[in-house]
Amino acid sequence: MALLDVRGLCARHGAVPVLDDVCFHVERGEIVALLGGNGAGKTTVARAVSGLHRPSSGEVMFDGRDITRCDPRRIVQGGLSHVPDGRRVFPSLTVEENLTLGAYLDSRRKNVVAERREDVYRTFPRLAERRAQRAGSLSGGEQQMLVIGRGLMSDPSLLVLDEPSAGLAPASIAALAEDIAAIRAAGTAVLLIEQHLQLALRLADRLVVLQEGHVVLSGSTAAVAADPRIGRMYFGDGNPLQ
Ligand SMILES: Nc1ncnc2c1ncn2[C@@H]1O[C@H](COP(=O)(O)OP(=O)(O)OP(=O)(O)O)[C@@H](O)[C@H]1O
């Protein structure tokens, strides 16, 4: 059974249809990249999966349970953590306080939360060095580490990352790729929503490509990269991936 199974998802914003019969799955411990241009519907998929946008039809199964109309807090508690786009840190709070907020739904004892924070610091040593620094004074790359770290505080089995590379310099994107690979190596599956094709190709086991709310391509990363349609979508007529 897949960890996440999205079946026939349809969604609207007001009267406007945005997703039409979107189907894909994520297995335990794998990275699946959801690709697509501006307005393709990627963020709407992420929000529907994490309970923040109510789909008009279809189902979202997670860890064997139907979570389609679940409260988002219950979804987090069940092991699905969503890191939205836009690197929304609490700027006046410290790195440590921002991380601790990631466990606000966690009823476990304080020392368990503190241990979890130390795990996050092991994944992101730069955050450990800056634990007392206000989040608003971090660089863009460090803020991205912080929001991912905050998402890890709930100890998820699936992390949904919405465009983590947006606005980052190439060196920070390379560091981000290593961090995401380390998160997967530690056993957390990742649904990586991206426009950065090279990052997705480097990290993902499988790719799902959305266009105008439809899945137009999906399969193993090698198979999708070899498909001439992906080159046309991203680069016009030539496909530099082949
Ligand atoms: N709150 C909203 N109200 C009305 N329309 C919306 C709303 N949010 C998104 N849309 C529309 O839904 C469509 C899909 O948007 P969505 O943000 O899911 O796409 P996306 O693939 O994540 O795009 P981007 O990469 O530009 O963030 C777009 O046409 C967008 O204008």
UniProtKB/TrEMBL annotation:
It comes from the Bacteria. One of its GO terms (biological process) is L-amino acid transport. Pfam families: ABC_tran. InterPro entries: AAA+_ATPase, ABC_transporter-like_ATP-bd, ABC_transporter-like_CS, BCAA_Transport_ATP-bd_LivF, P-loop_NTPase. Coiled coil: none annotated. Keywords: Amino-acid transport, ATP-binding, Nucleotide-binding, Transport. Residues 4-237 form the ABC transporter domain. One of its GO terms (molecular function) is ATP hydrolysis activity. Belongs to the ABC transporter superfamily. This is ABC transporter ATP-binding protein. It comes from Planotetraspora kaengkrachanensis.
